[in-house]
Amino acid sequence: MATRTKIIYLFLGLAVGFAAGFPLGRGSAPDAASWSRTFGMELEGRPLRGSLDAPVTIIEFTDYECPFCRRYFETTYPLLLQRYGDRVSYTVRHFPVSYQHRRARKAAEAAECAGDQGRFFEYHDVLFKNSRALDDRSLVGYAAQTGLDSNRFQTCLESGTKSEVVDEDIQAGIARGIMGTPTFLINGRIIVGAQPVEMFQREIERELAAE
Q1: Alpha carbons 69 and 181: distance in angstroms, whole number
Q2: I need a surface site. Which of 134, 145, 160, 166 has the fewest CB within 10 A?
Q3: SS3 state of residue 186
Q4: What is the spatial distance between Cα 183 and Cα 205, in angstroms, rounded to a whole number?
Q5: How many domains does the chain have?
Q6: pLDDT beyond 60 at 198
Q7: What predicted TM-score, i.e. pTM, was given to this entire model?
Q8: What is the CATH number of the domain that holds 59?
Q9: DSSP state of 85
Q10: Rounded-to-integer distance, Cα 174 and Cα 172, Å
């Protein structure tokens, strides 16, 4: 692993350790008026649920072995998709805490390999449903389960070509003050942790009303 990447993970480890000193799930809501809807991150070309032109953009920084991310996936995520549909543009950024979750990074790369075949979110969902079994063999098995070309998927995963995408997401998160997972940007407004669905709805409704 390159020295630069090691430095990134060292910083990330320290940052998450610092964050652990506070109650995980506490939200913050800085003034979003001076921030862009995407907080300066490019969405086009990345996996997306909903419409790119939606009035509300949600960017989730996640880790596939994070128990709080899984709790959000199971309890809040499906409700938001059902309620808001194409009124929300939903995208995922990878933020694996590798010093603690040793299989999360490869799982993130696997999701990107699935994205090459147009099945990012189907595979993303399977990963969270099986977050305790993310060894390489299982990752390839999930590809077949989601209808992917298994040989193409395995070649992508073993090549490590998606490592750069994961690194870019980590750097983007660190640059924006992300310290742990899950963390969300709703039109540039930060929510930290697996908060109750009502908090997400309140933020989304405020943005929709402002349109």
Answers
A1: 7
A2: 160
A3: strand
A4: 19
A5: 1
A6: yes
A7: 0.81
A8: 3.40.30.10
A9: G
A10: 6
